[in-house]
Design brief:
Elements lengths: L25 E6 L15 E6 L6 E6 L6 E6 L1 H9 L28 H10 L1 E7 L7 E7 L11 E6 L2 E9 L4 E9 L6 E11 L4 E9 L4 E11 L4 E9 L3 E10 L5 E10 L4 E10 L5 E10 L4 E10 L6 E11 L5 E10 L4 E11 L2 H8 L5 H17 L5 H14 L1
Parallel strand pairs: 5-8, 6-9, 8-10, 9-11, 10-12, 11-13, 12-14, 13-15, 14-16, 15-17, 16-18, 17-19, 18-20, 19-21
Antiparallel strand pairs: 1-2, 3-6, 3-7, 4-5
Helix pairs in contact: 4-5
């Protein structure tokens, strides 16, 4: 049963000075902090955000697939969100351990972008709690797009929010033994300025499975901030998929607390950046339980003066004996004027663990181009095929034909 109290009027924002947002339209934050600081000449310890929130394009957020039995979606104020987070039962975080920064101590549930972004969302976001009391066979889909844009699946759904500062804070609860898939798509309009922010905290119960899919297809003058935190109990599985195509500035992150023994975290990411696009990522998994498993797989394409930074941390805590962590990034560079920064990190306080990370960064092979040309495929078409292949590696796992088609169309338009 759903308990939705939709307000179709724009959100009335409260000042959040501690997050760098005062009486004006400017938003200034420090986000995506590395859990263990490194030499900062390359500027990867964190990322700065500076956004003018004035005169941004109004966006409409709608939801579909939430009205089936066993799914409950309800609005929540800040007190309701806090109570839901307290129910995660994460306990007191360590302040400083093994030379790491105290970012975990600053949040009840750690997230990839961190405490400053959470403070901004506390003052600006509309809150929702999504609970799955039974296994959901079909995904719940959140779709955000400019006013007048056709819905992804042909159904308008229920309108959650209409606002030029489109900010949503969401709690996802998947109880013991249940399974759920949640898809969140943000679409924009090239040449139009826009802003969207998402903060998701998920609790995945014992033996439960949750697949969270974040798709960003915003325009070249959009800023998107997309943050996630998750707590995994014993034998829980959390699959996290991120797709970013042609968004002007995107700041994304996740922090996963694998406190349950034998919990699993699988992160798959695809990005296609061009025309001065910026992507800043900070993804952390903290493996506390015994025999936990984590994988991070990233496939990306950079072209036309784009810039990307990936901070990826696998953190084995004391007591995580028998755990494994694997991280791999594959980046294709299609032009010369690019900036690519990859910061794979493994932190370890436990002896009986296995961690691995690797990065493959390269250009389109001349041998491949020659092979394709001999079969009548010109260089531009070959480039498009390679881009589609990189992104398609991840996109094919999205359980929605309409969402997959939207991603494909965005990739084609970018090429």
């Amino acid at each position: 049963m759903n308990n939705l109290n939709f307000n179709h009027q724009p959100t009335h924002h409260k000042a959040a000075r501690r997050a760098g947002h005062g009486d004006g339209h400017d938003l200034t934050l420090r986000v995506a902090h590395l859990p263990a600081l490194t030499w900062n000449r390359l500027g990867v310890n964190d990322a700065g955000v500076s956004v003018d929130l004035g005169e941004t394009l109004p966006l409409v957020s709608a939801v579909s697939g939430h009205d089936r039995p066993g799914i409950d979606l309800k609005t929540a104020d800040s007190a309701g969100i806090k109570a839901a987070l307290d129910a995660f039962g994460t306990g007191e975080r360590e302040r400083v351990i093994a030379g790491k920064t105290a970012i975990y101590a600053e949040q009840a549930v750690a997230t990839g972008l961190g405490a400053e972004f959470e403070a901004f969302m506390d003052g600006h976001a509309r809150g929702y709690i999504l609970t799955f009391s039974d296994t959901a066979e079909q995904p719940v889909i959140f779709d955000t797009a400019p006013e007048g844009t056709a819905a992804l699946n042909g159904e308008t759904g229920d309108i959650l929010l209409t606002d030029s500062v489109n900010a949503v804070s969401q709690i996802i609860r998947v109880p013991e033994g249940r399974e759920a898939t949640v898809i969140d798509v943000i679409r924009g309009d090239d040449g139009k300025k826009g802003f969207a922010a998402r903060l998701v905290r998920a609790h995945v119960g014992r033996g439960a499975k949750c697949h969270l899919i974040r798709v960003c297809l915003a325009g070249d003058d959009f800023t998107v901030m997309d943050d996630t935190g998750a707590v995994l109990e014993e034998d829980a599985v959390f699959d996290y998929t991120r797709v970013v195509v042609g968004t002007g500035r995107c700041y994304a992150g996740c922090a996963i607390d694998q406190r349950g023994d034998r919990s699993s975290f699988h992160f798959d990411c695809a990005y296609d950046l061009a025309e001065n696009d910026l992507l800043e990522m900070n993804d952390v998994t903290v493996q506390r339980g015994r025999d936990t498993e984590s994988t991070m797989r990233l496939h990306g394409v950079l072209s036309k003066d784009s810039e990307k930074t990936f901070r990826g941390t696998i953190d084995f805590r004391s007591g995580s004996a028998g755990s494994t962590g694997d991280q791999e990034e594959d980046v294709l560079l299609l032009d010369d004027a690019l900036i690519n920064k990859s910061m794979p990190i493994i932190l370890c306080e436990e002896e009986d663990v296995e961690g691995r990370h690797a990065a493959s960064i390269g250009r389109l092979s001349e041998d491949i181009l020659f092979y394709l040309k001999t079969r009548g495929i010109d260089e531009e078409t070959a480039r498009r095929l390679m881009v589609a292949g990189k992104v398609g590696t991840v996109v094919r796992h999205i359980p929605s034909e309409t969402v997959r088609s939207a991603v494909t169309a965005s990739v084609d338009a970018l090429s």
